[in-house]
Amino acid sequence: MASAQEKNRQVIQEFVKQPGNDSCADCGVLDPDWVSVTLGVFLCQGCSLIHRSLPHISRLKAIQDPAWDAAEVELVTSLGNAAAKAKYEQSVPAFYYRPKHTDCRILREQWVRAKYERQEFTYIEKQEPYSAGYREGYLWKRGRDNGQFLSRKFILSEREGALKYYNKQDAKDPKAVMKIETLNATFQPAKIGNACGLQITYLKDNSTRNIFVYHEDGKEMADWFNAIRAARFHYHQVAFPGANDTDLIPKLTRNFMKEGFMEKTGPRHTEGFKKRWFTMDDRRLMYFKDPLDAYARGEVFIGSKENSYTVLPGLPPTIQGYHWQHGITIVTPDRKFLFACETEAEQRDWIAALQRIINRPMHPQEYAVEAHFKHKP
Q: DSSP assignment, residue 293?
């Protein structure tokens, strides 16, 4: 005959199978292993580690734990993921980034803290740092030439339609003005070497410019990121008045489709291959001498197969001068671009990423980008 504790465990194991409970309450990944016996939510291994850093709010127990008491079972089964979501996510702004299990730690941790610790989505006034349409503060910014991180004042203004930063505290004129229209932000902790590292990109004379920033405080960085998303959201609401929120959300910020080193040769295909850092940002394939360069050495527009763009494994048989053996040929209406990867796995990943873009039909705005595109050989 099953003990009381065994029966309690069986109740929890049945409850986790109910719709809503069968995925992590914080990142959505399926088959959670843990439960917060104070919040009544089911969690994956990754999110449970974040909850462990909040012992004043969340106390954890493994679903398979043999020692469940009646009070714990009663609390968990009276709540569950759906009830907790109704309470802690009742007023999440449409633009606010909801992290997935593949996102970096800072995004996932600040989402958890915003929900349960600060209760930002229960009390709307707590959303002011990223919802006000204006934000200013100091961030550590990497110098373009010397690579040093120095404190710089940043101002984001929806009314002016721009993010600006200043090199000197008393400067009247900004060092750079980044239009919200072309702004993007993506967390890059490994590349920048800081857990809170953010890469901001914008277009300057139709070429991509990179800025690398961080702040020691995770909340500050998450607030900057979501303030940029809010500004982009409101810009797109004006630019596309008939669009639904669900259509606009994917346009706010984007992660790069793929990054990594490849070798490349020049337009005549007779130069030696040089190792470069490549970033694929939607239809822009950019290459840099160093991953933290401010400007790309060149950019290649990747169109669609309907417009005579193709990607092929390997290199033409006459080509010489490459060290890495796994070639890629990109065919555009104007010329062929030749690259080489260090491993077969990298070659396969790059071809898959390029093929996804080439298979996607171009929309009208992309034809305009193609027409104005600057390629630096």
A: -
- pLDDT, one tens digit per residue, over 65-81 is 888 889 988 999 999 99
pLDDT at 377 > cutoff 50: no
Length of the chain: 377
* DSSP state letter for 306: G
pTM for the predicted model, two decimal places: 0.93
Question: Are the beta carbons of 237 and 248 closer than 8 angstroms?
Answer: yes
Kindly give the pairing relationship between strand 34-36 and strand 41-43: antiparallel
Lookup result for tokens 């120095």? 150
Q: Is 259 exposed, middle or buried (0-12, 13-18, 19+ CB in 10 A)?
A: middle
| Spatial strand order in the sheet of 134-142 | 176-179, 162-166, 149-157, 134-142, 207-214, 198-204, 184-187
Of the candidates 41, 71, 36, the one whose C-alpha atom is nearest the C-alpha of residue 55 is 36
The model's pLDDT over 53-68, given as tens digits with 9 standing for 90+, comes to 999 999 999 999 888 8
- The stretch 195-219 carries a mean pLDDT of 95
Is residue 297's pLDDT more than 70? yes
Tell me the Ramachandran region of residue 26: left when phi exceeds 0, alpha when psi lies from -120 to 50, beta otherwise: alpha
Q: Name 313's Cβ contacts closer than 8 Å, sequence gap at least 6.
A: 326, 327, 328, 329, 347, 351
Q: What residues are paired with 136 via a beta bridge?
A: 155
What stretch of H or E contains 1? none
